[in-house]
Each structure stands twice: as C-alpha cells, then as structure tokens.
Amino acid sequence: MSGTLCIDGIAVPFSDGQTIIEAARTAGVYIPYLCHRLGYAPYGSCKLCTVKVNGRTNTACTMPAADGQTVISNSPDLQHDRQRITQMLFVEGNHFCPSCEKSGNCQLQAVAYHQNMLDNHYPHFYAQREMDASHPDILIDHDRCIFCNLCVRASKEKDGKEVFGIAGRGIHKRLVINSPSGKLKDSEISVNDEAAHVCPTGAILVKRSAYLAPIGERIYDGHPISEVACEKAVIRAGEASGYPSCDPTKLTDAPQQNGGPDSHYAATMPPAPDIKHGR
Amino acid sequence: MAAKIKIATTSLAGCFGCHMSFLDIDERLLKLADIVEFDRSPLTDIEHCGPCDIGLIEGGVCNSENVHVLREFRANCKILIAVGACAINGGLPALRNFFKLEDCLLEAYQDGIGVDNPQIPSDPELPLLLDKVRPVHEIVKIDYFMPGCPPSADVFWHYLNALIEGRDPTLPYELVHYD
C-alpha cells in the first residue's frame, strides 16, 4: 500500500512497507532517533522518535505508514519529552564529551544539540562500568553505551555472529560479550564487521581512528543531525518545498480529542531558527 | 545614571578555563564595564559575595568549601548560571568518582611515583573532600546553563546581553557545544 500521510502539516508520500520514520526521512522530514538505522528491522527501544499518530502516542520507527495518517512530531510536548529522554541517557551512563574521541561525530551528542539541550536536568548516576580494551582493533567503553541494541542486531543479523547481547534489567542492564572470558578479544568479532561500526555513541570504537577529523570538520560541526540523517534537505512545517502542505485536521477521520494541544500545533508552530554552521 | 548591574563569578572544581573564555570577549569587555560591576570574582579579589544580579559558577562541587561558596552565591545572586561542562556534569574532576576517595589520596600523596615526604594533607584549614564530585544543580537551584568546555566567548556575550536586557537567554544551534 502506498499513499500520503501528513507530518506536522507536510504531505509526505510513502511506499509499500515503509514505517513513518522511513517515509519522513525519504521526504526530508527529520524525526529524532538513536536506535533506528536504515536497513535494520524496526526496534523501538530509545523512544526518541515518539510521535502522535491520529492523536495516539507511537514510535515512528515501528509504526507502519498508512494513507491519511495525521502525525505530529515537532510539538512542544513531544520536544520536551525527547529532551528529557536524552537527558536520562546522559545521566545514566558517563558521557564526558570533552574527553570522548567520538565528540563531533556522535549521534547522541548531535541529537542533544538538535534539541538545544543545555543541561542534564537529572542527578548523575556516575555508574561504575569497566572499559574493555582487550581487542587489538576495537575498544568498548561501556560508560557510553545507551543500550540501543544496534551492535547486538548488527552482529546477529548482518554479521551472523551474535557477539553482543544485553543482560540484566533496569539499572543492572549491561552490554555483554559472547566469549569464554567475556572479553572482546576472545569473541568472533572482526574490525570489518558491521557491529564494530554501528554504535551511535562512543561506546564501540575502532582503535587508531580517533581525532582524524579536526574540530570544525567533524560530521556534526557543519551539519546538524536533521540534515545528516535525511536523504533530502530538511523541510520544516510551513516551508515545504516540493511537498504540498496539508491540513492536519482534515486528513483523518480519527478522533482528535486524544491529541490534546498537539493536534492544532502544526499550523501555529513558529518557524525553526536558521541554522548556521561552525562554532 | 542607573545603578550598575552586579556580577559575581567563581571557579569551584574548575580549571579557570571558563573564566579565560569569558575574558575572550576581548574589546567587548569595555562595553560590559560601562554597565556592569564585578563583585566577588577572581578578577576583583573581593572575598565574599554581596547582593548581586548575576552569579557565574564555573566548575563542579568537590569539597566542603565549594558547597559553602555555592550556597553563598545562591543566597546573594538573583540569577545563578552554571558555566561549562564541569558545573553541568562534574566534568574532568568527576572522573575521580570511579575510584574510592581514599585511593585517590593515597595515589596523589603517598604511593604515587615521585612523591617526596609522603603524607595525606590534614591541616584543619583545608576543606574536606566530598566522596564524589557533583554538578552544581544537585546542590542549589540553577537558573541557566552555559554548556561547553569552555563555553565560547560568544556564549558568555549572548547570555549576559540577554539577561541585561531582561530577556531569557537562548543559544542558537551553532553555539551549543559540549566540548
């Protein structure tokens, strides 16, 4: 099935089998995410891509696109929730950007920048997690793991190896390595595996690849993640180029009362600030 | 002429790098000096903070003195701003949070390589260390946050201008940096 859905007042076409986040990305409409990746099965663990679909809360990365859907993504309520989720990720692990080699190329950091996140809001856990530098080519800094499961899925589905797993629940949740010693050096992972390259943070790093790009030339120095993540230029509500706008109240016959203040938001949203590059 | 706006600044468990970045507003300091006056600050050597409009806190909280200074600032400053990565999340000094305080002291003053006359400092004048370094928002209410290690001079300029003009400070995308 294909058709058109309405995201923040922009008419977005979709093709058969696409989720809302995929359709949005193809059309150049950015919905923040960390656990999603193109070419991977929908997972829905980070909840950053939470949107209102016909007034109900759903993750855009798991919800199939359907003709006539009204999706609200860029509302103050949802943006606030996204910032709180990101802040929880920051205080749960140990994310010290100034001393992290992923800084500037980090999706977690870039998502936080995109949300204009200026503080961490919550008390810090300062979790005790050990680093695994045992492998000659790959380093794991567990301090920076956000349990997105991308390395677990990459190793299993793309590399056919099952090197990684998530063990424990709640505060005891941790990334574990499938090897006799529990160390990465005794696992089957190789530096050419997809699992070594999918980490959205600085938790899994390929050794001898740090600081190759100077400050100012890193991925997110010049381009916000909303641009990098989308295949086409970002289209914001009210300035859709190439895609017609749509009235979020008319495209669906679903009840709107569950949508709360979000339902009428897209039409009144102030334009996003101009994004300039460099520091 | 209206009374000058009073600003106090301090560096707790910080490196003074944020203060250096503040001074990087360069010739804009002259404009600032026309309308503000510095109270307690490393720039003035005033020992205690009087009633102020704006307080800038660099660094996290690592010892008892930091807690007293931070509370003094909160009690006296209408607006308190956490400046830089260390004030916001503990930063580099917080890397000691992953070791026992005793082990840190032993390594620095007793067992470390090249230590002469090994002894743990215990002068009553010295503030006691906290078991963990903490961000300032965990001790007192903070009104605004300036991210960055350090925040650039433009970030200071943005915030001070907004506050002096009575606006809520906001940062454009290109000025939001954690490193």
UniProtKB/TrEMBL annotation, chain A:
2Fe-2S ferredoxin-type domain mapped to chain residues = 1-78
Cofactor(s) required, per the database record: [4Fe-4S] cluster
Gene3D superfamilies, per database record = 3.10.20.740, 3.30.70.20
Tell me its family. Belongs to the complex I 75 kDa subunit family.
**Keyword annotations for this protein?**
4Fe-4S, Iron, Iron-sulfur, Metal-binding
The protein, known as: NADH-quinone oxidoreductase subunit G
Is Metal-binding tagged as a keyword?
A: yes
Q: Which domain of life is it from?
A: Bacteria
Subunit and interaction comment: Composed of 13 different subunits. Subunits NuoCD, E, F, and G constitute the peripheral sector of the complex.
| Sequence segments annotated as region (Disordered) | 245-279
Ranges for the 4Fe-4S His(Cys)3-ligated-type domain?
A: 77-116
Q: InterPro entries, alphabetically?
A: 2Fe-2S_ferredoxin-like_sf, 2Fe-2S_ferredoxin-type, NADH_UbQ_OxRdtase_75kDa_su_CS, NADH_UbQ_OxRdtase_Gsu_4Fe4S-bd
From TrEMBL, chain B:
User: Which cofactors are named for this entry?
Assistant: [3Fe-4S] cluster
Key words, A-Z = 3Fe-4S, Iron, Iron-sulfur, Metal-binding, Oxidoreductase
Q: Which domain of life is it from?
A: Bacteria
What residues does the NADH:ubiquinone oxidoreductase-like 20kDa subunit domain cover? Answer: 15-162
**Iron listed as a keyword:** yes
Q: What is this protein called?
A: NADP oxidoreductase
